[in-house]
Every structure is written in structure tokens, then in C-alpha cells.
């Protein structure tokens, strides 16, 4: 009998002694108990086990979270698939005759509290150092509790470190206010024991012991199969990989330069959503298959097949990672150019650009155009088609070469030189992203008033770029005429005659 006993994490679910639990679907069976209230009361034994545990994890994987919550392999499979609803699972209605029920025979009460510290974005080569420093500081938290009072003594270096990360609280306690800083987290931690109540009346189920109902009624159907640990690990790896892809995408989305370019923002957001949809679709399929495997109606090959199919799909690790590599490269190229021309105004699209050049004070307008950024993306279309059950094509994202990056920064330096030499109250400069395959990489749109004079590709190197100092001025018919000529790369790239009324 001991080998049939199950131990599962409660995960904030409302377990009580004597209630039924469907081990196939990992859900409670409400409104039914094996014994009446008097029998339960007369046969319940309570033991106090006062203890506390403090653990630190620097990983954000499902494995680390499962370890902190004491989730074993079988329940983890259900958790990954979405079968376990941490809150509100008691709303499910399951007929006892269709379930493989177990009876709750023991409950360990207590409370969990999780303080999640999240650092600001750091460079890749600084991550390990930051992790080590954060771990050392967080490890000190119990030492700040002196007889129930906070004694927070930090060095100047530690104080500076606490300014670089924020805190979020998750747990079974109801706090007066959720902590957002390290100091607030320490104060909350010190006050946790009091929140349990003098008699532990505010504690909740943490761990539950279950016994198969067959020991009471031999005719009750048994749980036939459990999911192998190896397969659970494979499922976990797939879902964690998809979450990492979404997190990488989000890192690009929060880059300041991305917010200035709607086309970049759109494709990154679209990618993130498609990954989320695919992950939800995987979990939906797992919800259907897991109970069938446990009941012996299907074997594990049906679930393993889903994992194998992913590597042949547009959502394979290789394809998603390659797409992100290319898009991150695009963001870096744009960022590098914008850093060269940091004080120039961004315009979101062609319409906004036209509005700017039509402004009364704008006589001359120059706009540095990123011509390679576009919202159409065959890879994203393939992902969408795959989710819709349609045939998806084969396409590869384009990775920007080092030569392309050099050309782009050279063009930005040239544009900056033109801005320095021609800037004035009547000359306006802008930056925008407008697709133009005629000029790959970047182009400069030159305007006089609302009229576009020239679309050029400033492809010269910055050391040969110069603005001709010659400016001639003469009066003719009460009109002030300026002739501006600028030389780019040693050749006359542009010449225009502008008439201003005096």
C-alpha cells in the first residue's frame, strides 16, 4: 500500500481531509468526501511541526520553480500542460465514476513566500558578476531579522547594488503592501511569521498525501500509467525554450530605439505573440493526451511525436533562434546609426514626415531614411500559416553583414556632417524608416518646402565627405538667392537653387 500512496504539492488548491482527487487529470473532485464530518473529526490527528526554510535560486527555469514548490514529475507534467489550475480548480465538475480517484489522508499546512528579484538589463559579460553579487546580498536577508525587528546594515557597494533590481512578491500571505525594493522585501520577510497567526490559523495546505480509493472499493478503476521522467524533462525543455525565445524578443522590444520605429516594434510583437500562441497550442494538445496516457488508452509515443514535430516546424529552436539573431542584429544596426545622430527628430512614417516638411518654418528638410526595415516577414507568415493548419513555406531571415553595418554607420556619419554644416533656422533634419528597395540600407530625402528634390544614397566614407564652403549671395528683383552646393566623396552629388523672398 505504501508504494501506492501519492504525495503532491497543494499549489494553493483547497484540499481537505477525506476529499477525492482525480490522479488522471490532477484535479480535485468537489462536493464529495469519503467520510462524514463527525467521522473525520473523531479520527483526525494533529501534530505541530514548527520549522522554516530559506532557499535561493538564480534560475528562472521550470525545473528550478518546480524544485522550490516541491512539485514531483507526474504533477509537473500536468502543470506544464495546464491541467493544474493553481487557483479556482475547485470549480471543476467530475463524476466519480469516470475518475481514478484517490482520497486525501494527510495534509501539511504552512505558507510559501517567494520574493522575486529582477535586475535591470546588463551586458552579457556582466551577468555572472551581477548574479554572484545579488546572490550574496539576498543570502544575508535572514541575518537582518534580529528578534523580529529589521536591522538592515549595508555597505555603500551593497546599497548601490540594491538600486539596480526590483522585487515582486508571490505567496500565501496577504501583505498590507507588496514590496518593490530590497529594503521593503526585508521588512516583509521579517514580518511573515506573525502573518501565520498565533495558532497557525492563516496557514494553507502545502503538501498532500493521497491513497487510492481501491483500498475502500476494489471496483474503482486504477491509475494505470504515469508519465516517464524522461518525457517530462523533454516537455519542460520545449516549453522553457519557447519562453526563453519570448523573453529574448521582449529584451529587444524594451530597447529605447525600438519604440521610435513602429515597423521594428510590430514585427517583434508579432513574433512574441506567435510563440505564445504556439506554446498555448502545445499545452492544449497535452491536456488531451496526458489523461489518455495515464488511463492506458494511448502510449507516450503520441506525446513524444508532438515534440519531434516541433523541430520540423517553423517553431523549431533553430529557426526561432536564427530569426531573433537577425532581428537583434537589425536593432543593433539602427541603434548604432541613431547614436551617431542622436539629437535628430524621429518621424514615425511617410505621413508624419510630410507633415514636418510642410511646417511653415521648414524651408529645407533632410531626412535620413532607414530603407531596409519592413513589416512584411515571410518567416512570420510561415509561423502564422502553421498555427492555422495551412501549408507553410520555407524561408530564411537575412542576417546583416559586418560590411552592411559599416556602410550604414558611414552614411550616418555623412548625414551628421551635413547637419553640422547646414543647420540653421530654415533647415530641418529628421530620421525615419520608410521601405525603399531602390536604395538598400539607407537613403537621404532632400526637400525644398513640400517638394522632394532628390533621393540619394550617401555611400561615401565619412573622411572624404565635406560641405563645399562656397556660398554665393546676390540680389535680383528684390529676391534673395542662395546657391548651396555640397560635395560628397569628391563628386558633385547635389545642386539646387533656392529662392527666398527678402
UniProtKB/TrEMBL annotation:
Indicate the segments forming the Stonustoxin-like helical domain, all copies.
237-332
Which parts pass through the membrane? none
Q: Which residues form the SNTX thioredoxin-like domain?
A: 343-450
Record's protein name: Uncharacterized protein
Q: Which organism is this protein's natural source?
A: Amphiprion percula
